[in-house]
Write a structure and sequence with these properties.
Belongs to the CdaR family. Pfam families: GGDEF_2, HTH_30, PucR. This is CdaR family transcriptional regulator. 54% of the residues lie in helices and 14% in strands. It is built from 15 helices and 12 strands. The strands form 3 sheets. A 5-stranded mixed sheet has the order 2-7-6-5-4. Strands 9-10-8-11-12 form a 5-stranded mixed sheet. It has a two-stranded antiparallel sheet with strand order 1-3. Helix 3 links the parallel strand 6 and strand 7.
Amino acid sequence: MSLTVTDVLALPGLESMRLRAGSAGLDNAVRWPYVAENSGIAEWVLGGELVFVTGINHPRDEANLLQLLEEACQRQVAGLVILTGPAYIQIIPQRLLDAAEAAGMPLIEQPYSLKMVLVTQAIGSALIQAEQLGRSRHDVLERLLTGDYQSLDLLLHRAAQLGMPLAGRWQVVQLQLEGGEALFDQDDTAQVEAQLARQHEAITRRLRQFSASIPVVGRAGQWTLLLPATDAGAALANRQQLATWLNPLNLRLAPLKLFIGLSAAAHPPARLAQAQDEARQALAAARRFSERAGLCVYDELGVLKLLSGVRDRALLDQFLNERLGPLLRHDLHHGPSLMPTLEAWFHENGNLMAAAQRLAVHRNTLTHRVQRIEALCGLTLDNAYDRLDIGIALMIWRLSA
């Protein structure tokens, strides 16, 4: 559980600190307080700090304060606190307030009469308490999601004590961010890691807004989220809400891409482990089947539910090899042509013209490839049972790609 700028302003003893601008960033997570001693802060912050500007060791005119605000936005600090009084910074310039408001950067005024030692002590203690509470809440949630508990009643009682109302019906959401490898090919490691950290923080912050009362479990580009879903209607609303957020987000993230899998609806706490497994299966389909536009619900899986239920992977590999092995070996040695052709033909329901357009090849080329596929595999594409086998084999291939 993180400490936000709003939480800091509500701490006992800090009532004289007041927000002057940038209310849009009140939910920014505060990682630690930092007192700015130099003319700039870009080299001295990592992101998430609440930066205190005193003017004691460096003169702070309007130009310098605007520079600090610009660097604070670039480094994604949690907020700026300007100490005001008769000795150093008498007033906060209006241009600075306007710029902070436009940037959504919280800008707080603190009187010099409020001692910094009291402020940093209050924030430090709150950060420690928030960290301990966050770990306890994550531990409870992870135990429910893995089924690692002896008494469900005791675990739910602990959850209630921690402010987690879990006695309801839920839908589990699994998210995964991919494509970081492409970034490392373009830029140096430090820049890429900083960019990924910013993206992770932004996604985590948005996910917290989806489920304010239940913590988001996340690490290394993977997140797990619980959403209330008492029935199919609520689950559909969750799906629509996530899709509305996901589609424009992925346009901005490119070459990164976020994928989402959702479980079925109405899982009680006792079935959250099952719900997480459903969400993982849906996530795998969202990642492997581009037509799902990066999002899939467990109820939409169809026959993939059966394939996902086969625990012996060797059986699936054997089926794939028996049906499409010759095509896989051909493409391995001669480049991908037959498998993409078969997939396009199947996707277009046997329409040769549409499949040729999908692959950007001449229809005669496609016809020749289809004949080659039938000859190599011993399958007839006009035969209903062969088409069924092909469809299942293609799903296995996509899941294992």
